[in-house]
UniProtKB/TrEMBL annotation:
Domain 3D: 358-416
Compositional bias of kind Basic and acidic residues: 271-287
Domain of life: Bacteria
Name recorded for this polypeptide: Uncharacterized protein
One Gene Ontology molecular-function label: hydrolase activity, hydrolyzing O-glycosyl compounds
The organism of origin for this protein: Metabacillus indicus
Start and end residues of each stretch annotated as Disordered: 271-317
Amino acid sequence: MKVSMRMIAALSAGFVALSSYSPAFAQTSGDSLKQAEKQLNDNSEALDRKEKQKQAVHTAVQKMEHELANTEALIKKNENDYASIQKKIQETNELIEEKKIEIVALQDKVINREEIMYARLTALQENDHADIVIHTLVNAESFSNLFERIGAVATLLNADNDILEQQEADLKQIEEDKKEIDKQEALLKEQQLALSSSGAKLEEALLQRQTQMASLKSEYEKVSAEVTLAEKEKSVLQSQVKAIETSIKKEQDAAKARAAKALAERKKEEAARAAEASARAEAEKARKAAQAAPAKKKQTAAVPAVSKPAEKPVQEKPVQDESKVFYVTATAYSHEDTASDFTAIGINIKENANMKLIAVDPKIIPLGSKVWVEGYGVAIAGDTGGAIKNHKIDVLMPNSAEARKWGRKTVKIEILD
């Protein structure tokens, strides 16, 4: 009676303690879950910001790549234009050289004419111009010859005029050609300088854009690394949240199981108390009946057997069965480790190297018994040994290597028959 009451009190106290523990654990787990969820939420927000920053930098990189492409295209065009101008300069220089050669030729003609004109003027100066004409006409042999002479004189006089006019024209052409050459040279130099200046500016712009691009790419790589790190942190936090939720669920399930078990125990104890109370009532009734009928004292002495239902409780295994299950220290051996290949009951272990067989102390495990060995299986207790005493066995292995691999273990065994 007192024992039962103490058990009930202990179970009630345990149930109360369990009831108070579960809410405390639930509160702690809930706080951990809230904290993990908050960290996950903060991480997600930070990740969103980093993703937007990464996208902005990516857009800037694309824009800069477009600008770089345009600048490089302009530089390429400028280089082509510069090459074209250089070609024109070369062509113009070739034309200038040709024009210079022409000028030299004209200058030579002018000099030659000057020499001819100088000679003619000298002749005219030495012989009066009018006398020459008169002398030429007077010395005509006939009338027709006169006309011929008049034509010749006119031709000579006109030739002098033509020479003078051609001389003036050539000198004027030389001056115009010189001016045109100077003009073309100045124009080409101006274009060349303009293209050089434009090229320098484009190269400077390209260098600036390349520097900006390198900076943007560095920033993009940095933000990408931060995004990757944030994603890893998010994955870790998600795992933590999931683990906490799983732990909470397991604890809730365990708490429910403990509560159900405690409730079952309480019901069982209540049933036991009810049975005990009923037994006491029956015993009291029998006692009163015995007092009322002294003549039947011997019969009433057997009445206490009514209380047996309270002693019924548990059906345990016979003591003999329990004695067949115990723990031993197990080592291993093989036919390679023994002087004889035959066991105590005459089994050749060399020919039966893979046989499940153990060496035992016969006073603990009878020889010939079938025994289950934890981690080894069902074996025959078929051998003995000088070192096999009390709760110690030796398991048979195919060879020494397998025996060494087994080592020394504490195992559970059961004698089957």
